[in-house]
Amino acid sequence: MAAFKKGAFSIASRGKVPVVPISLIGTGKLMPNGLEDTLRPGRVKIVIHPQIRGEDPDELCDQARNAIAQTLLQYGMPVA
């Protein structure tokens, strides 16, 4: 899982709007590393997590990343 950038979380905290983390499971089989311009058929599982709110962008980012990381681990996906 790539690093999260803080921009969207800063906007959400300033605008006092919730962030809804979403986990995508199985996308690596559809678009393998190095073959980003090639799509393969397959299934993807989408997990929509509960919304999170907060005033601290760093905390929002950490909460969203943790929610997604936990789901990836449950499905045996790598979290780095």
UniProtKB/TrEMBL annotation:
Keywords: Acyltransferase, Lipid biosynthesis, Lipid metabolism, Transferase. One of its GO terms (biological process) is lipid metabolic process. GO terms for molecular function: acyltransferase activity. It comes from the Eukaryota. Pathway: Lipid metabolism. PANTHER family: 1-ACYL-SN-GLYCEROL-3-PHOSPHATE ACYLTRANSFERASE, 1-ACYL-SN-GLYCEROL-3-PHOSPHATE ACYLTRANSFERASE-RELATED. This is 1-acyl-sn-glycerol-3-phosphate acyltransferase. It comes from Riccia fluitans.
